[in-house]
């Protein structure tokens, strides 16, 4: 009897594995049925606005601006994030959500349903938020074991909106490595744009962000978590996690009082803008309409002089290359900056990039690889003709193009664009190599472990097979 049960279990598990392989992997190897760029693209540009934009590059300032947004919110606070990735800053983030809610601010917090990291010990955070009448927490596309094709429908956006008049969008998740000092092991460098408005009636670009958030929040794929009563045991656990979070906040405050008391005049740092808009993908399971990608290609085609691209992962798949053929790019120069092997924390994605490295080097783009072995680049940004700046969550890879929810702010501001280019030239290019310079490659790659090199050699042929999912 036991042998029969064991055999039956093995057959069931094998069948389920095959089912996952067919519906969660092989299904996505088929080309998506997408519309034509000409028929699907619209002109979303907002040309008249009093909004201003601030570049947030420094990691400490990136934490500061998030806490400021939550501290200064008076009525509403809408938050969308892919992942809470651990450390004191996550507790700080939660503490400021609680403090805002205690002041009467209505908080809506939307996180990805698989990678929110509110499981096990952190599950009590859900209970804590459930206890608060001013906090709503929802997960986009939670785990569904019956439908593996939904596992790729991930919410990858990262943005916040306060009082529908101030907003932040960028590539950072919430976690210590995104806000850490240089001595931290495994620092992740990123980039945000802060949009400042005077009132709700004078913030049309932030209004687009608000419309997108509301759409995600109310979508059928989104499931609210804070919609039930807690029993006595759950209430006690919620109180314990609150005590822990507030203790972390107090410890951090006691040792970093200058950080909390220092006031940064974001308005003084701001740039006038000539307009802009938010681009985002459609919201569908399986393949999405790659609206961000198409908007980027449209902007590339309009470029006259220069395109500067920063992305942690560059994987131009067959479908992406086919889309690019629909546009004729006529540029004098281009620059791509991505992670080299020494810097990358994502070996699988980097292995996929290595399959295209030689081809990218032969284009008119100068291809640079960042080489710091203790820091990586996580920013997703583009500057066109030193005038149009694009910042958000979108990586140049098939997953961002066809599978994830993604959003990017497109801002017309020459001074903002020039600040970003100056930052790239001063902060990152000195630690990067032009990959054609082979002697320099060998010199700067000396810090790469043998294990890391071997993994890339092994994974490169494997990533070709599943490139459509990278």
Write the layout of secondary structure elements.
Blueprint: H1 2-24, H2 37-40, E1 52-56, H3 59-72, E2 76-81, H4 88-102, E3 106-112, H5 123-131, E4 135-140, E5 159-162, E6 166-170, E7 187-189, E8 192-196, H6 204-217, E9 222-224, H7 232-255, H8 257-261, E10 271-272, E11 275-280, H9 291-302, E12 306-310, H10 318-324, E13 333-339, H11 347-354, H12 357-361, E14 365-370, E15 375-377, E16 381-384, E17 388-392, H13 398-403, E18 407-412, H14 414-428, E19 432-434, H15 438-444, H16 450-465
Parallel strand pairs: 2-3, 3-4, 7-15, 12-13, 13-14
Antiparallel strand pairs: 1-8, 1-10, 2-5, 4-9, 5-6, 6-8, 11-18, 12-16, 14-19, 16-17, 17-18
Structure description:
This protein has helices at residues 2-24, 37-40, 59-72, 88-102, 123-131, 204-217, 232-255, 257-261, 291-302, 318-324, 347-354, 357-361, 398-403, 414-428, 438-444, 450-465, and strands spanning 52-56, 76-81, 106-112, 135-140, 159-162, 166-170, 187-189, 192-196, 222-224, 271-272, 275-280, 306-310, 333-339, 365-370, 375-377, 381-384, 388-392, 407-412, 432-434. The strands form three sheets. The protein has a nine-stranded mixed beta sheet, with helices on both faces. The chain has an eight-stranded mixed beta sheet with strand order 11-18-17-16-12-13-14-19, sandwiched between helices. Strands 7-15 form a two-stranded parallel sheet. The chain contains 16 helices and 19 strands. Helix 3 (59-72) packs parallel to helix 4 (88-102), helix 5 (123-131) packs across helix 7 (232-255) and helix 11 (347-354) packs across helix 16 (450-465). Strand 2, helix 4 and strand 3 (106-112) form a beta-alpha-beta unit. The protein is α+β, with helices and mostly antiparallel strands and 470 residues long.
């Amino acid at each position: 009897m036991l042998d029969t049960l064991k055999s039956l279990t093995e057959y069931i598990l094998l069948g389920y594995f095959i089912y996952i392989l067919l519906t969660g992997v092989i299904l996505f190897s088929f080309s998506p049925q997408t519309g034509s760029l000409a028929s699907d693209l619209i002109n979303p540009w907002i040309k008249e606005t009093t909004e201003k934009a601030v570049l947030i590059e420094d990691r400490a300032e990136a934490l500061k601006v998030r806490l400021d947004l939550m501290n200064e919110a008076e009525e509403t606070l809408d938050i969308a994030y892919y992942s809470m990735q651990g450390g004191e800053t996550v507790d700080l983030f939660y503490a400021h959500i609680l403090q805002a809610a205690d002041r009467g601010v209505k908080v809506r917090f939307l996180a990805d349903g698989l990678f929110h990291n509110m499981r096990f010990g952190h599950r009590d955070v859900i209970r804590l938020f459930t206890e608060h009448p001013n906090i709503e927490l929802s997960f986009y596309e939670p785990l569904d074991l019956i439908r593996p094709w939904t596992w790729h429908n991930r919410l990858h956006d990262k943005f916040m909106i306060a009082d529908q008049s101030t907003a932040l969008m960028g590539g950072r998740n919430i976690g210590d490595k995104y806000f850490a000092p240089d001595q931290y092991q495994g620092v992740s460098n990123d980039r945000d744009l802060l949009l400042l408005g005077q009132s709700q009636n004078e913030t049309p670009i932030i209004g687009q962000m608000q419309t997108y958030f509301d759409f995600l929040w109310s979508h059928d794929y989104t499931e609210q978590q804070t919609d039930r009563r807690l029993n006595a045991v759950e209430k006690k656990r919620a109180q314990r996690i609150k005590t822990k979070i507030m203790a972390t906040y107090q410890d951090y405050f006691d040792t970093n009082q200058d950080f909390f008391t220092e006031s940064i005049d974001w308005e003084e740092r701001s740039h006038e803008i000539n307009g802009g808009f938010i681009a985002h993908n459609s919201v569908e399971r399986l393949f999405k309409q790659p609206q961000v990608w198409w908007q980027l290609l449209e902007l590339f085609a309009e470029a006259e002089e220069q395109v500067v691209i920063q992305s942690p992962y560059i994987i131009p798949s067959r479908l992406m290359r086919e889309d690019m053929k629909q546009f004729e790019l006529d540029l004098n120069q281009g620059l791509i900056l991505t992670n080299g092997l020494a810097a990358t924390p994502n070996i699988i994605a980097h292995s996929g990039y290595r399959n295209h490295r030689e081809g990218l080097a032969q284009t008119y783009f100068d291809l640079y690889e960042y080489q710091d072995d203790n820091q990586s680049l996580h920013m997703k940004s583009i500057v066109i003709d030193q005038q149009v700046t694009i910042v958000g969550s979108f990586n140049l890879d098939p997953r961002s193009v066809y599978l994830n929810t993604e959003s990017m702010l497109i801002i017309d501001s020459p001074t903002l664009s020039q600040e970003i280019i100056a930052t790239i030239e001063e902060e990152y290019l000195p630690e990067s190599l032009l990959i054609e310079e082979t002697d320099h490659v060998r010199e700067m790659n000396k810090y790469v472990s043998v294990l890391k090199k071997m993994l890339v050699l092994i994974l490169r042929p494997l990533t070709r097979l599943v490139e459509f999912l990278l």
